[in-house]
């Protein structure tokens, strides 16, 4: 009778196996749950650097705070939860939340936009096989710049906004060309131009 009962229990277990629960990934020091593990490129471009991710990324691709933290960790970075947790912490934000505004008011740290993270990783992928070199901060990467660093960051681009370190894309090239001033005055009439050339309409017709 005992064996028969045990057989029935074992048979029931085989028919209804327990489904293993999928563990969600939680970033240490953060209450936000990451629903999908990071599956992007992995480089060492942020190796040894400390990052304080303060907000999510909104444009052009929405990424939660937890996803940005995973992105940084997958590429060698270390996540901290305060700008004072380590030396030379990189503060990242693109929204003016209370803690972000407070940090701006203190004037002690630059705040970089999340786009800088993606640009660094993209450049590291392009430079595969060569030493990883982080892109310097450029004006378009900055959410807030301290007075002492403003002039230095401006030196990382030319007069037209072209980066000295980052590879140009079709999109950025169009943007740069669009911002360039015209070298010729197109409002001048034909007679004025011919007069400067010492020619006449009759000579050219």
Automatic annotation (TrEMBL):
Extract the SUPFAM superfamilies matched here.
Answer: BRCT domain
Which PROSITE patterns does this UniProt record tie to the protein? BRCT (PS50172)
Q: What class of enzyme is it?
A: ligase
Q: Which organism is it from?
A: Cryomyces antarcticus
What residue stretches are annotated with the BRCT domain? 41-125
Molecular function terms in GO for this entry?
A: DNA ligase (ATP) activity
> PANTHER family given for it?
DNA LIGASE 4 (PTHR45997:SF1)
Which InterPro entries does this chain map to? BRCT_dom, BRCT_dom_sf, LIG4
Keywords assigned: DNA recombination, Ligase
- Name-wise, this protein is DNA ligase (ATP)
Q: Point to the regions of Basic and acidic residues compositional bias.
A: 1-14
- Name the Enzyme Commission number(s) assigned to this protein: 6.5.1.1
Among its keywords, does the record have Ligase?
yes
Matching CDD domains: BRCT_DNA_ligase_IV_rpt1
Annotated stretches, region: Disordered = 1-22
